[in-house]
Specification:
The complex is a heterotrimer. Chain A is built from 11 helices and 4 strands; from the N terminus they run H-H-H-H-E-E-E-H-H-H-H-E-H-H-H. Chain A has helices at residues 2-30, 37-54, 59-82, 90-113, 141-163, 165-175, 177-182, 187-209, 219-234, 239-260, 268-279; strands at 121-122, 132-134, 137-139, 214-215. The longest helix of chain A has 29 residues, at 2-30. Chain A is globular, with a radius of gyration of 19 Å. Chain B has a single domain (7-316), classed as ABC transporter involved in vitamin B12 uptake, BtuC. Helix content of chain B is 73%, strand content 1%. Chain B has a two-stranded antiparallel sheet. In chain B, helix 3 (60-78) runs parallel beside helix 5 (109-129), helix 7 (154-178) packs antiparallel against helix 10 (202-228) and helix 8 packs across helix 10.
Amino acid sequence: MLAYLLMSGIATGALYAMMAIGLVLVYRSTGHINFSHGELFMFGGFIAYTFFVILGVPYFLSLILAVIGGFVLGILSDRAVYRPLIKAPPLTMVLATVGFSFFLKGIARYFWGSMEGGDYVAFPAAMDPSPIPIGSIMVFPQQLLILAGAIVFVVGFTIFFRMTRAGKMMQATSENPTAAYLSGIRVERVYTLTWGAGSAIAAAAAVLMAPMTLLSPDVGFQLLLKAFAATVLGGLGSMPGAIVGGLLVGILESLGGGYVHSGVQDVSAFIVIIIVLILRPAGIFGVRNIRDT
Amino acid sequence: MQALLARRNIVAVGIIVFAILPTFANAYIVFVANLALMYILLSVGLNMLLGYAGQLAFPNAALFGVGAYTSGLLRLEFDLPYWITLPAGAAFATLIGLAIALPALRLRGLYLALATIAFAQAALWVFGHWNSVTYGGAGFRVPPMDFSPLPIDPPTGIYYLSLIIVLVAVPLGWNIVRSRIGRAWVALRESEVAAETLGIDLTRYKAYAYVVSGLYAGTAGALFSALLGIVTPESFDLFQVIVHFCMVIVGGIGSLWGGVLGAVILVGLLEVLRTFRDLQEIAFGGLLLFTVLVVPGGAIAMIKRYLPGWNEPLRRIGKKR
Amino acid sequence: MKARRHFLSTMSAALIASMCVVGAANAEVGVTDKEIKIGALGVLTGPLAKYGNTVYDGIETVYEEANKSGGIHGRQLVYVREDDRCQAAEAVGAAKKLIHQHKVFMIHGGACSNASLAAKPEIVATKVPWVITASTAPSLTYPVTPHIFTTMLAGWMESYAQVQYAVEKGMKRVAIIAQHDNWGRSRYDPLMEAFKLHGIEPVANEEIVPDPADATAIALRIQAAKADAVILIAFPKAAVVAVRDMYKIGYKPFMIGGSTVGDVGLFTKNVGIPGATDNLHAVSTIGYAADDPAVAKWKKLVEAKYSGDTFNIYHMFGIASGQFVVEALRRAGKDLTRDAFNKAASNLSVNTDVYGGPITCTPTNHQCHNTAAWFGLVNGTTKRLATTIVTR
């Protein structure tokens, strides 16, 4: 039982971690929380659905196209929402991203919502969906794909950050925007890139998750809340924290659901947020900007 | 002209319209106006916490629910009269507001926002799962209100009761924000360090903000349970959080009258959006974005610009008048 | 004296004449010589929009058929939809808007129980006839209000039928997977009653959220309880995950679903794993699968009228209810009044095209539908296995 619970906890946790990375990325460079992140996730899923199910494009190509689509959507949201409000107080930004999330949800519902009769669409698995044995337990191939995908994307992101020029610029900007600006980095472009990258990884998470659930326009919000829990647990500004936090929330939910009661599975994430914030507001890995915006 | 459009006159016209509305409008319009009155309480209360004290906290939807559940349950289980259940609901919500203030005092900015959103979600879970008390996800019906000595039907009675409460609560709020408390809030909003050097007890005044906003939310909740006659958990979900928040921002953050306006605008908007059907969410989201991008100061900023008679000392609160 | 009598008779004649004029002008609200205005009250936006809109598409299709064949006594049916977002506050607003602003003759609709319950006092106070299509709370129609009817199975009926079915199939250890939101609770509470009536205890009682990413924990708990049957009270989004995860851990209990998975074929397609739903039987309000030739006529009409719709069980809720209302309006006669409608509807039995049994209202019973049908997969297609009349 423990092996099963850990396995599904890690698989769900990997998705939370991918969501949390996008949140942290934007937060670190701009100091804002993107409340439309869940809807960017959802939209990425529907982009993949359009390619994979409607147009019959292979799964992996759909995944890549969705990631590109997510990136473009992120850039668009930067232009439409963030750029004009770059100097606005956090409150205004919260409302703007909330408004944007409704907008995206409405569009998704309008175009894809009714395609299969209900308010959801079925996203077929990438490969034969029959479970396969791993050690003593059975897992869905898609669960392994989630893990593999999460590792690929996280490693890819790390390399991008550490090795590439753009990645270094992003790091420099998040450390100190003024200094970055003075040393010739076009900070606004970096912000654009950040929104695009955060949205792209959310889209990837959506494509990995969609075959495990049904895809609906409302799927993003729950994921966003879980990603919040992950970021709070890991420390709002920390990238490794986001990954560990995501996995921890996933495992905690799974164990809570298995050993305590299925009723607490969903609420455990919020209890985590509250307890962590009361006891250790900076999170596990949070070092800078303790308690501050 | 300027004198004619002074704030006092505009507010007076607003009060008169609300006061005589039931005599000419149909029951639907009266109901919507009643919702607007209730949301004025929520919006004004949240504005004190968000706008004046500068706490990025969203406990109101949950406290709204606490008020509704408390007064509704007291009415249902003990058959208490409304003049007891309403203050009881408000008082209990205030108490919970104080209780969440204690841990929340340690947090600031977005951490505080996330913590209070988590609190709202946890409260919703409790409403939906504490079956022996809250009747769980199915909710419960509240016995209708009785105005028996007075010759009025319940909807009209609740309407005028709401109006009276608003007529007390808004001036009360107006006085609070202009008092020592309001000045302390603005000081700590602008800079906690500076406020502390001025001898302002941060903990105490932050706690006041939570308490006052809890009082307003709880009162609104108690009215809500009477107005609808049914209390169910999904009435207090995160959409409520968003609606309250929108009211404050759309009306004008840090302006009491902005809060009033925001409530009326949002309630009207949600009713108009009914006709949009499939496009409702797109229109709602689009309008929020539009407001933030085009009129960042909210409706009150527009009014200040085009109605010179509106002499609310918005940004001068806290300074000597 | 004579003059006076003359005066009196003139006056009374004038009075009678004026009363006639007033009578004509005071024709029933929402009814003119040309049309009958009917309001829809239900969820049209947000996550649950499909469960409202789709039902009303079904109703409107029936109305349009009636209109095409000349209307009801020459009057065309006009359908006005108002959104309740599945929320109590919005439902009261929507009901008041329909009654006082649109001035409808009657209300035909209602998708969420809590929202419908919130709207009920206003409808009771104004005595507007109300035929409920999809809300399942029994307290909507019991005790009987003379002008409120429902053409939907009450929430308890499916739950009772599920437990009954488990017992009939000889299941000894029965477990539950249920959503505990307001929809789930309207079925879960009577389910527990039914368990008690049969003198059995569920061996596991698990909660699932409406939007789960994973249900392995639930599957394991039920497996650990050694249940041989599982009663599912969940929307497809949750049910799909639960069924997949039970299959994943190699646990294959007999599964007893409800209306939400009633189209077992469609649900199987959603689950996406061949064989995972072989043990699933589901009870449903409707009498035919969506691709059954018996309902092909309606499928064609609905899909032609609403290009975005795929014909499904929710359309059928609307079609059955629409057929009932059209027949009641017809029986109510040329001089249509609310009282006449209530009287006609209270003494009416209609065999609809889509339910497994007739919709029958009597003056003492306004829960007009009580025939549940059981569905399962036979050779890969959804087949009706049995029908049952549910009683308490």
